[in-house]
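For practice. Any example?
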Amino acid sequence: MIAPTALNVTADVVLLLYPLPIIFMANIPRSLRYSLFFLFGLYGIVTASAIIRVTFMTGGKLLQEDNVYASALLPNTPAKISPRQKMLIVGV
């Protein structure tokens, strides 16, 4: 769940920052330039809200462990296992 969201946020940041120098250097009226900066600023707010949403969804633990694979290896194993049990299952 975190990897696709991180990819989306990275794409959002790239799409947000890429056109800004082009708009800054373009020979367009100042009012149009400011309105374009305003629109991209709104897009920045959307990107920030996506980052905050991911943080709240994961409970602030962006690098939490995923123990679901243990249930796939052993069908009668609970989804949440201790690190010691994980070592015994995987053999690490």
Remarks:
- The chain has five helices and no strands.
